[in-house]
Design a protein that fits this description.
The chain has helices spanning about 30-40, 65-70, 110-115, 120-125, 130-145, 150-155, 160-165, 175-185, 200-225, 230-240, 250-260, 265-280, 280-290, 295-305, 335-340, 375-390, and strands at about 40-45, 60, 75-80, 150, 310-315, 320, 325, 330-335, 395-400, 405, 415, 415-420. It is α+β, with helices and mostly antiparallel strands. Strand 6 (about 320) and strand 7 (about 325) form a beta hairpin. Protoporphyrin IX containing FE binds near residues 265 and 370.
């Protein structure tokens, strides 16, 4: 029987496989990225033929400046040609997935984005603040007197999924299912959360799609009956650009995208943020004593946690990145997990500083058309949650090992047992 072909360290830049989740077993490999930024900032990274990238290989981009350039150069760096994930999605064109916002290029993307922007104006997001306060209060009410908790499941997990469910008008009965499915969609590399790679993500996607379709039909019927939109979902279904509305498929794919894009990411920022505070207790005290630092603290939490560690583009026509020639059709992977700690942009990048200004992190992308639609929503969630945490809990301490998601894409935590003096 033929053995599966594999790569040896000699084939890889600095001998490290960035497609292997094990490389991220202890979190972001800062030393590796620092060396790549300095010695090989745009470098060809081969892939195992039996891996999720099917051996295609990619340009690995690690400097802040180059990551921003790739992100902004939408016509030359396509999200539509083969998706925005590191694994192979060559079959995306013409499929349902091509109707998802993150998988579009301008001008199609521009029209769709104008439509969904209507649901994410500061006014619409501000309307969710009271709900965020309510959920944060309820979440902490449940744990404060216990003196111990799993910071991920008991504290960080609740707010992000409740906010998405609220804004998309998901009923209470569907919320646990939406929560479980979004975990499986994101944790596809983790044996505990699905395990069989892209296939388990596809299965979870199909189930989520069914829920989205049901909720969407219900909302459309209410609007057709003359009821005013009750939530962001209603606003989205009613919005028009150039006389066109979202089709049923587009609405369903957008719903699917939000449950993936806004849930695990924000949960990771809350959990990783608390881990950063436990490792830097002086910053907890500083923020507790001066709450005017909350806005800069939130951005430092976002930088330090970098919930999404990379995204991918495909080169359209021959070009160059940071002086390196790249060819039409080649894959490019931009490492936010590296750019956010680039010493050319951030003073003492490994220092967690709640007053850091300026803070040009690329946690929501490096700008350009795909810049995170939920950035201000996520910032508000973090502000509300950390305000409550500072008010209601002393700084906890770790009560057991931190269990990380097995992934080279999501910097997530699965469990983080903590305790405090109740
Ligand atoms: C800390 C939390 C979050 C992080 C780290 C994050 C990160 C990102 C990043 C890096 C992108 C760029 C994708 C690309 O360039 O291909 C993105 C796009 C997006 N995010 Fe977020 N996100 C967060 C929260 C949210 C929330 C709360 C929502 C909504 C509920 C959301 C919705 C979206 C959408 C719809 C896009 C696609 C935008 C487009 O393609 O035009 N995100 N996000």
């Amino acid at each position: 029987m033929a053995t599966a072909p594999s790569l040896t360290p000699a084939d890889l830049p600095l001998g490290v496989d960035l497609t292997d989740p094990c490389t991220f077993a202890d979190g972001i490999p800062h030393e590796v990225f620092a060396r790549l930024r300095s010695e090989a900032p745009v470098v060809w990274h081969p892939e195992r033929p039996d891996g999720p990238g099917k051996g295609a290989g990619f340009w690995s981009v690690t400097r802040h400046h180059d990551v921003v350039e790739v992100n902004r150069d939408a016509p030359a760096m396509s999200s539509a040609r083969a998706g925005n994930m590191i694994f192979d999605t060559q079959g995306i064109q013409g499929s349902d997935e091509s109707r998802m916002l993150v998988h579009m290029d301008p001008p199609q993307h521009t029209r769709f984005r104008l439509l969904v922007n209507r649901g994410f104006t500061p006014r619409m997001i501000g309307r969710l603040e009271d709900f965020m306060v309510e959920v944060s209060t309820r979440t902490l009410d449940r744990v404060v007197d216990r003196g111990e908790a799993d910071l991920v499941e008991d504290i960080a997990a609740e707010l992000p999924i409740q906010v998405i469910a609220q804004l998309m008008g998901v009923g209470e009965e569907d919320r646990p299912k939406v929560f479980d499915l979004s975990n499986r969609l994101i944790g596809f590399d983790d044996p505990e959360l699905g395990g069989d790679g892209v296939l388990s993500a596809q299965k979870a996607g199909a189930e989520m799609y069914e829920i989205a379709n049901r909720v969407g039909k219900h909302k459309r019927a209410a609007l057709d009956a003359g009821e005013p939109p009750a939530d962001i979902a209603g606003v989205l279904l009613q919005a028009e650009v150039d006389g066109e509305r979202l089709t049923e498929l587009e609405y369903d794919m957008f719903f699917l995208l939000l449950t993936v894009a806004g849930n695990e990411t924000t949960r990771t920022a809350i959990a990783q943020g608390m881990l950063a505070f436990m490792n830097h207790p002086d910053q907890w005290d500083r923020l507790r004593n001066d709450r005017s630092l909350l806005p800069t603290a939130v951005d430092e939490i976002l930088r330090y946690s970098t919930p999404i560690m990379n995204f991918r583009r495909t080169v359209m026509g021959d070009g160059e990145i940071g002086g390196q020639a790249v060819k039409d059709g080649e894959k490019v992977v931009i490492w936010y997990a590296s750019a956010n700690f680039d010493e050319d942009v951030f003073t003492d990048p490994l220092t967690f500083d709640v007053g850091r200004t300026p803070n040009e992190h690329v946690t929501f992308g490096g700008g350009g058309p795909h810049f995170c639609l939920g950035a201000n929503l996520a910032r508000l969630e973090l502000r509300v949650m950390f305000d409550h945490l500072l008010d209601r809990l002393p700084l906890p301490e770790l009560a057991g090992p931190v269990d990380r998601l097995h992934s080279n894409f999501n910097h997530g935590l699965k469990r983080m047992p903590v305790r405090w003096k109740a």
